[in-house]
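Notes from the 1:1 (GR / supervisor)

We went over the backlog. Supervisor wanted to see one worked example end to end before approving the batch request, so GR pasted a single chain during the call. The sequence is below; no edits were made to it. Supervisor asked that the structure be written out right there so they could see what the output format looks like.
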Amino acid sequence: MLTERLDDRQTPKSTPGHKPLMHFASELFDTHPRFIQLKSLLLDFFNGEVVQEICLAGLEHVISITLAPTPESLNNASTNMYPNKAPAEDVASLPKVHIRTYTTRLLSSGTRVPRVELTPMGPSLDLVLRRYQPADAELLKQAMKRPKMKKVDVEKGTFRHPFFILV
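Structure output shown during the call:
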């Protein structure tokens, strides 16, 4: 068994503590229930959030999640977020998930916006979705509820969830 540490690779590394830019390159991440769940899991794992704009100067590394070519049978996937039972699909019909990490370099482009160059950082993962058990519809509905906030706290941005208050 060959194991390789990230420190052993002779590639640039990102600064610890910086959030990566996460790039999901497939429409299945927004349409297929299994890939919607995977996207949500990865965003939660990397503490990501959806943003409309980014500051290129603060961008140090990118995590790119892509899918192998999509089979024709998945092009019209269901968008049911609350399935009652697991979809009766063949695991072999699901495309592989490729996860790649890159560091970024900003180069001059002759315009106001710099050219971004990606350098592989590692690790590179190829995943296959196999086992799957959908959540109970009622339990998922309860888990997706957001706490009600006071209007004053929303405007100030000072709302803190009771589970995340540091002492």
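Supervisor's comment: The CA atoms of residues 1 and 154 lie 52 Å apart.
Batch request approved.
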